[in-house]
């Protein structure tokens, strides 16, 4: 329902547009086709929509985008204007009709004009006849007309040289070919063919050309039934084929056999005639290569026709085989001896590219035996081109033979040397270089009589012994091979072995890259503990699979924070370097670049900071401190060992007179007071210190200056020891009743007093005299004796002697 509405809307719109077009303007003739170079005349008609405001005088014309001159205009009436264009040479152009009113242009209508030529007479009529199937004819039309041209092919029957019109059959086409199909393809030898060409400018017809169908017959290609060899007959193949069914009967045929071996790009041909009744054909292909595969195709033609059939579908077959005539190319890789005294010998070989080849190899026979005992020969069979033998450390002879259905090849023999055999170094040097297309290996031998060598090459990281390549070189000391045999950016080991007889001498080796690029990664920098002005930078070698060439050098880049970058370059065998003259207490960034012939690659950077002080600075600072500490430690040890001696010097023990065994001192207060009074009265006329010394001389203790406590104790001990001799004098002293009158003042008497009494001189200032005459003072421990008795301190003497 919806689609119906859409169609109704489209029809309505188109009808409205048509009415408007007729009403507004029209041009005729519409889409004219004229002969090139002729005169074109067109008419433009205004519709009712433009009248009466506009008329034919307002119409202007354009050819494509160019305005046509008004002298070519003609006003037919008020609504019709015409234009004449002389010598129209455009192959295709647009003529437009405008109206100009009040200075404005409005397109009314336009049309497309084509120009061309009338057709030429067709010629070169030729036909191909497929018996009872198809008849196709082609022709040439001459020059291009540039206009729509139609062709009509007429097939007419002829009799006695005249055309029979009633047997005319036509075939129409817009191209220069037309075909009749079954059942309009009867066979007759009396047909002629005519072609008529026509367009709007005219028509032209060719003559009716007689063409016998047997001369234009082309049949389908034959079918090959078999291509096979004959047992026991070498270098021969027999080919058999059959003809197609649809073919004109009673015609002799000619067939052509094409054959080509698969190693060649050129073909050879053999022509085989067939009689009219033969529907099959065969032939023998001789002088072929042994054991070679051939491709065969066949085509045929009628003996009176001009058209060959297409080639049949090809078929392949191989000639009879013969025994391989060449021995295999044999090589070996010997591993080191195992702990059990055995070793693995890897044998590999490749058939020689003999030409022509002998045939398809079915397998290989491997034989080996100790060099000195051929009776122990052993045999292995392999269909692969490699094998691993487990041999002992003796010398062995190994042979490999290839075989096919016709027989065996000659033996390829190789000697496996004993494990302990030492051979001389015949090759002195080896060098390699590359050209644009080749890798060249050259060597120098010390023995010119050696004329045969083996060049072996393999990737440095190759671990499979069967992954090696080799080639024998004779009568030359250089070897060349295509660069395609080597991978780029891979390191190869190349070894050259001198060969004499079945023995090989010691090889000479070299490594090479056929093409280099910069390393895939750079070394990772590391540092040891930095010093004040130097540091050792270390790095590891780049792994072999990342080098992409021979490392030529390393460059160490280092830069202080905020400073200029510096660098040092070292050889490829150096893996650490000491950077010197660095700034102290400074952070540095260091990285390494590894370079080869193709460029350099940097590794990850490492930062470090130099020390503020180096070992010498630390030693310079630490030595005085250490010596000082050792001195203090020695002093401390000395103090510990001499404690009593230092104690006697620094903290003397003052003996307590109250506990003295020499005399019992009266300790009453009245005596002390009287003693102090006497001292005070005498201080004005007699020096107090002299009195003290005189009184101490008159005492029991020998007259000495005031000493430390321990010294005084020693003196007391000495006095006790001498008391026996001085007993009478001592007793006399002890019996004194009035100490203040009979003996001089002894300072030790103050030890029995519990308080300190200050003796004030009369000559002291008044403010000093007004101070308390005596005060109780708690003494520090070092000023007390063992029993805790107070003693007279030095300040007492100071006050007593003050003036």
Automatic annotation (TrEMBL):
It comes from the Eukaryota. Keywords: Cell membrane, Glycoprotein, Immunoglobulin domain, Membrane, Receptor, Repeat, Signal, Transmembrane, Transmembrane helix. SMART domains: FN3 (SM00060). GO terms for cellular component: plasma membrane. It is a single-pass type I membrane protein. Residues 1-17 form the signal peptide. Residues 221-322, 326-419, 519-613 form the Fibronectin type-III domain. The chain crosses the membrane at residues 618-641. Its main location: membrane. It is found in: Cell membrane. PANTHER family: INTERLEUKIN-12 RECEPTOR SUBUNIT BETA-2, INTERLEUKIN-27 RECEPTOR SUBUNIT ALPHA. Belongs to the type I cytokine receptor family. Type 2 subfamily. This is Interleukin 31 receptor A. The lineage of its organism: Eukaryota, Metazoa, Chordata, Craniata, Vertebrata.
């Amino acid at each position: 329902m919806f689609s119906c509405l859409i169609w109704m809307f489209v029809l309505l719109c188109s009808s409205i547009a048509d009415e408007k077009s007729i009403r507004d303007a029209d041009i005729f003739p519409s889409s004219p086709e004229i002969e090139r170079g002729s005169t074109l005349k067109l008419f433009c008609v205004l519709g009712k929509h433009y009248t009466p405001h506009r008329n034919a005088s307002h119409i202007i014309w354009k050819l494509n985008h160019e305005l046509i001159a008004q002298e070519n205009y003609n006003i037919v009436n008020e609504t019709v204007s015409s234009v004449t264009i002389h010598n129209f040479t455009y192959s295709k152009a647009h003529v437009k009709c405008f109206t100009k009113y009040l200075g404005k242009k409005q397109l009314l209508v336009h049309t497309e004009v084509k120009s061309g030529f009338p057709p030429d007479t067709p010629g070169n009529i030729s036909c191909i006849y497929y018996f009872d199937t198809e008849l196709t004819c082609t022709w040439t039309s001459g020059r291009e007309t540039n206009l729509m041209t139609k062709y009509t092919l007429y097939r007419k029957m002829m009799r006695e040289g005249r055309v029979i019109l009633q047997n005319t059959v036509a075939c129409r086409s817009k191209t220069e070919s037309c075909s009749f199909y079954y059942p309009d393809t009867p066979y007759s030898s009396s047909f002629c063919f005519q072609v008529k060409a026509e367009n709007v400018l005219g028509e032209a017809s060719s003559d009716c050309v007689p063409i016998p169908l047997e001369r234009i017959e082309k049949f389908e290609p034959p079918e090959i039934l078999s291509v096979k060899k004959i047992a026991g007959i070498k270098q021969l193949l027999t080919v058999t084929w059959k003809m197609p069914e649809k073919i004109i009967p009673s015609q002799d045929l000619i067939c052509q056999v094409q054959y080509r071996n698969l190693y060649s790009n050129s073909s050879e041909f053999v022509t085989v005639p067939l009689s009219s009744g033969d529907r099959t054909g065969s032939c023998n292909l001789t002088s072929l290569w042994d054991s070679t595969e051939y491709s065969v195709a066949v085509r045929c033609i009628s003996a009176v026709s001009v058209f060959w059939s297409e080639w049949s579908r090809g078929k392949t077959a191989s000639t009879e085989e013969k025994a391989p005539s060449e021995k295999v190319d044999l090589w070996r890789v010997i591993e080191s001896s195992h702990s059990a005294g055995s070793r693995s010998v890897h044998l590999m070989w490749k058939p020689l590219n003999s030409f022509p080849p002998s045939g398809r190899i079915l397998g290989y026979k491997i034989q080996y035996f100790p060099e000195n005992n051929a009776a122990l020969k052993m045999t292995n069979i392999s269909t692969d081109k490699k094998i691993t033998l487990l041999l002992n450390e003796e010398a062995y002879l190994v042979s490999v033979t290839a075989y096919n259905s016709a027989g065996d090849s000659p033996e390829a023999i190789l000697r496996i040397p004993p494990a302990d055999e030492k051979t001389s170094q015949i090759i002195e040097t080896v060098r390699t270089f590359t050209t644009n297309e080749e890798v060249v290996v050259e060597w120098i031998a010390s023995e010119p009589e050696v004329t045969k060598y083996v060049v072996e090459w393999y990737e440095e990281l190759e671990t499979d012994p069967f992954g090696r390549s080799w080639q024998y070189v004779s009568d030359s000391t250089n070897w060349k091979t295509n660069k395609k045999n080597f991978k780029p950016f891979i390191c190869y080991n190349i070894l050259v072995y001198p060969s004499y007889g079945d023995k090989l001498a010691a090889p000479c080796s070299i490594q090479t890259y056929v093409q280099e690029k910069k390393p895939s990664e750079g070394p990772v920098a590391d540092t040891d503990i930095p010093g004040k002005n130097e540091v050792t930078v270390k790095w590891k070698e780049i792994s072999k699979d990342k080098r992409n060439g021979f490392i030529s050098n390393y460059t160490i880049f280092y830069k202080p924070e905020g400073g200029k970058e510096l660098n040092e370059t070292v050889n490829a065998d150096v893996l650490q370097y000491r950077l010197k003259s660095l700034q102290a207490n400074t952070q540095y960034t260091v990285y390494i670049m590894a370079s080869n012939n193709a460029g350099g690659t940097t590794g990850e950077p490492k930062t470090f900071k130099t020390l503020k002080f180096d070992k010498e600075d630390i030693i310079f600072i630490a030595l005085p401190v250490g010596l000082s500490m050792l001195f203090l430690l020695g002093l401390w040890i000395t103090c510990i060992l001499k404690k009593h001696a230092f104690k006697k010097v620094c903290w003397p023990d003052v003996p307590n007179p109250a506990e003295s065994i020499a005399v019992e001192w009266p300790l009453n207060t009245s005596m002390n007071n009287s003693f102090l009074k006497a001292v005070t009265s005498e201080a004005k006329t007699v020096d107090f210190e002299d009195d003290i010394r005189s009184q101490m001389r008159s005492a029991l203790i020998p007259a000495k200056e005031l000493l430390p406590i321990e010294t005084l104790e020693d003196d007391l001990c000495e006095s006790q020891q001498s008391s026996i001799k001085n007993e009478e004098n001592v007793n006399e002293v002890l019996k004194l009743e009035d100490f203040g009158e009979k003996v001089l003042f002894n300072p030790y008497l103050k030890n029995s007093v519990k308080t300190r009494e200050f003796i004030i001189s009369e000559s002291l200032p008044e403010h000093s005299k007004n101070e308390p005459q005596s005060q109780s003072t708690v003494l520090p421990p070092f000023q007390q004796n063992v029993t805790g008795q107070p003693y007279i301190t030095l300040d007492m003497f100071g006050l007593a002697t003050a003036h």
